[in-house]
Structures are given as structure tokens and as C-alpha cells.
Amino acid sequence: MLVTGFDAFERGDDASASAAYRNVLQEQPDNRDALLGLAAMAMRKREWEIAADYYLRILRRNPRDSVAQAALIGIRDDLDPVLGEGRIKQLLEEEPNAPYLHFSLGNLYAHQSRWRDAERAYFDAYRMSDANADYCYNLAVSLDHLAKRPAALTYYRRSLELAGKQSPPPRFDPKVVLRRIEAIEGESEIRE
Fold first, then answer.
1. CA angle 23-27-32, nearest 5°?
2. Which domains does the chain have, with CATH numbers?
């Protein structure tokens, strides 16, 4: 059932994925993978409270689950950013090669407009998982904010390449990326 749920989620068939994950939870109420699947669907729909509830269920069973912790930190906009940063860094000490933790840290920095720090965190995430279009895209955005346009262009283009190969689809809109690429290319033509 988990495989059925995951396959349906990747196809964007949330109704089938939800049914499969809920069937698993009827048999195993604390199944981590089913809870993560339901949380991911809620995140995709921007249903933050529902996603938080699923992550909290995972954390009640295993308070050290770094995937659930990082996701929960990412959706708790009322969280003190200093505490959130400290907690993510603590998790990174335990799991330095977890790209999703670097990505979460980058998101936290970006939310605070700390673009240099965000660039480093996104770069680390992308370096560890270079097939992830979202990691690549966020790196491009951070470079763009730092006025590193040639590098931003490279990563915007790469994020579009990866988006075509990635399942589930990335969280960014490829049309927006294309418009940004055109704008940056237009700026460079004006300067020439």
C-alpha cells in the first residue's frame, strides 16, 4: 500500500495516494512513511496546519526524527527565527549530509533576506542532491538577489532541465523561471 500511495503521489493523484496512506494507517496508526506522505500532500496544497499535525504525530513517536523536525520548523512562521536556526544547526551537527536540512536552513535565511547565508545553505543542499530542481532553483534565486546574474542564469536554466526530469514536479512555476531568465538576458544585452 505504501508503494501504491507513493506512486500515486508522484503522479499527482492525491485522492488515490491519500486513500492508500490512510489504509496503511488503519493497520499501523504510527506508520512514518504514510504520515510523511499525507504531510507532503498537505504541504503541496499549502494546508500548513494539517501538515504540521502529521509531522507532530511522527515526532510524538520519535522526537529525534530530523525530517519531521525540519519540515515543522519550515512551516511554523510564528517560530522565533533564532530558535529555528539554532535547531536546524543542531540537526545538521547530527546529520551534516542531509540536503533537506541545508535546504530548510536556506529557506529560513531567505525568509530573513540573509541572502549570502541562504546561498551557502542552498549550495550545500544542491551539492548533496544535484538532481533536485527545487534546490537548484532556490540557489538561483539567492544568487539573483546577490546580483550574481551569470551564476543565477546557469542555475535557473539547470533548474528547468531538472524540473522536466523530476517527479513529483518541483514547487516552482517553470513559466516564472523562463520570464526571469529572459529579464536577466535582456539586462545583459542592454549593458553590451
1. 80
2. 1-78 (1.25.40.10), 80-192 (1.25.40.10)
CA-closest candidate to residue 2, choices 27, 63, 180: 27
Is residue 103 within 8 Å of residue 121, measured between CB atoms?
yes
Average pLDDT over the chain, rounded to whole? 90
Contact 127, 155 (CB under 8 A): no
Q: Which residues contact 168 (CB under 8 A, 6 or more apart)?
A: 9, 10, 12, 44
pTM of the model: 0.73
Q: Which amino acid is at 50?
A: I
Q: Tens digits of per-residue pLDDT, 104-159?
A: 899 889 989 999 999 999 999 999 999 999 999 999 999 999 999 999 999 999 99
Task: Answer for the pair 100, 125: CB distance below 8 angstroms, yes or no.
Answer: yes
In the chain, which ranges are continuous DSSP H helix? 2-11, 14-27, 32-44, 48-61, 66-75, 81-94, 99-111, 115-128, 133-145, 149-165, 174-191
Burial class (CB within 10 angstroms; exposed 0-12, middle 13-18, buried 19+) of 54 = buried
